Amino acid sequence: MRRAKYVSIPAGYRRAAIQPSPGRGEVVRSVVSETWDQLMEIYRGFVAWSSAYADENVDYLQEPKQRREQVSRCLSEFSDYYAPRAVWLDLRTCKAIEEFIETSQSLYSEFADEIRDRGYSRRVKVNMAERVSTELGPLKREAVSSLQAELRES
Predict the structure, then answer these.
(1) Cα gap 154→24, rounded to integer Å
(2) Which of 118, 126, 101 is nearest to 50 (CA)?
(3) Which distant-in-sequence residues (6+ apart) come within 8 Å of 149 by Cβ?
(4) pTM for this predicted structure
(5) Structure letter (DSSP) for residue 154
(6) Between the CA atoms of 112, 114, 116 and 119, what dihedral angle is there, to the nearest 10 degrees?
(7) What gap in Å lies between CA 109 and CA 72, rounded to an integer?
(8) What are the residue boundaries of the structural domains of the chain, listed by start?
């Protein structure tokens, strides 16, 4: 008498049977929420880096460097987070976010070069603050608006 051959079910299928994967709406809400948080963190980092009031802090000589590093870290983390999750977002939202990322990276490079060349003077800080509010602010608002639309639709 022949014995029946045992067929193993792959672990991924066993888990799916026990814990069904989340629905599209749930995944989109999660991605939108995390994307929104990270966008805001980048923008706040730029605002803090360009703050004209940084001089009032005790460790103001090291602060611009720490703030620059924070912006760099946030940009890097956001790029790593966003790229594989863009498939969950609408094309309009992706374009707004990618434009925000490109402008953020460009401003970061320009600010770092300007600080290296001219120092972290009050004039440099004022220029940085103006550019953040005029160039990055509208892009942030557009990206947030697109993310809000995504939440309403999901």
Answers:
(1) 8
(2) 126
(3) 90, 92, 93
(4) 0.78
(5) -
(6) -120
(7) 10
(8) 13-153
- Region at 28 (left for phi over 0; alpha for psi -120 to 50; beta for the rest): alpha
| Spatial distance between the Cα atoms of 65 and 37, rounded to a whole number of angstroms | 23
CA 61 to chain centre: 27
Task: Say if residues 46 and 104 touch (Cβ distance below 8 Å).
Answer: yes
CA 113 – CA 133 distance, rounded (Å): 19
Torsions phi, psi for 90 (to 5 deg)? -65, 155
Tokens of 97: 């976010």
**Is 47:132 a contact under the CB 8 Å cutoff?**
yes
The 10s digit of each residue's pLDDT in 58-117 is 455 566 788 889 999 999 999 999 999 999 999 999 999 999 999 999 999 999 898 888
d(CA 103, CA 105): 5
CATH class of 13-153: mainly alpha
Instruction: Find out whether 45 and 67 touch, Cβ atoms under 8 Å.
Output: yes
Residues 6+ apart with CB under 8 A from 113: none
115 in Cβ contact with 64 (< 8 Å):
yes
